Amino acid sequence: MDKFNIAIDGPAGAGKSTIARLVAGALGFIYVDTGAMYRAVTWKVQQEGLLPEQETEVATLANRMQIELIPGDEGQQVIVDGVDVTKAIRSSDVTTHVSQIASYGAVRHLLVARQQQMTVSKGVVMDGRDIGTHVMPDAEIKVFLTASVKERAERRFKELENSGTNTLTLSELEQDIARRDQFDEAREISPLRRAHDAVLMDSTSMTIEEVVDEILGLCKDKVGGGK
Ligand code: CDP
Ligand code: CDP
User: Does 128 sit in the ligand 2 pocket, CB within 6 Å?
Assistant: First the structure.
């Protein structure tokens, strides 16, 4: 069976990265977390002492920085200009500003072009906000994964508590998620939207395994299974 591409979009904390990584592992495909690229630009902006509002300077910086995504069993490693930023890009400081950086047309244009290059040879599971609508409009499988804000905040809270990196209360996390969703849905360029041909999955009361199985089922139905 020929390789194919899978697009997984949805709001913050819906389970996109976890599920995309497991689906990619099951099919022997490559997993690409596009949010990490917007986070990497945001991290670099902060390192260089730029303000997120400095759109022109931010775009220039994004254009000259190198972002490498290295697939691994534990997820994707992110290297910016030779520095491993895999953990640093998850800081609350980056999370607070990433949606503003991701709203800039020049930044999106640049990153989308890089993302599209990665999908040419197929066998890619890519997650983000505009993958089914913009980055891979021809993806064979498209999923729009969501869950209630409350459930997404609880999941993120547990994740941060378990890794010992939590600095926020559950209610602060819920507010942050709702604010980011609103920003991503309202931006002019490639806002967060369900593609008309994406399958909607509400995972509020689904386990990770159930969502993965459902997506693998879609793959079997549509394209005969993968490898
Ligand atoms: O993992 P989490 O849901 O917290 O977010 P992420 O996937 O790491 O993405 C961080 C931010 O990058 C999002 O809130 C969006 O503002 C932006 N993003 C985007 O605009 N387009 C994408 N394809 C991926 C992420
Ligand atoms: O990438 P995104 O922001 O959409 O979400 P994630 O980082 O993959 O998932 C956020 C947290 O929710 C992780 O700790 C997952 O293990 C958890 N999760 C869950 O408990 N149940 C699901 N059905 C999906 C994700």
Answer: no
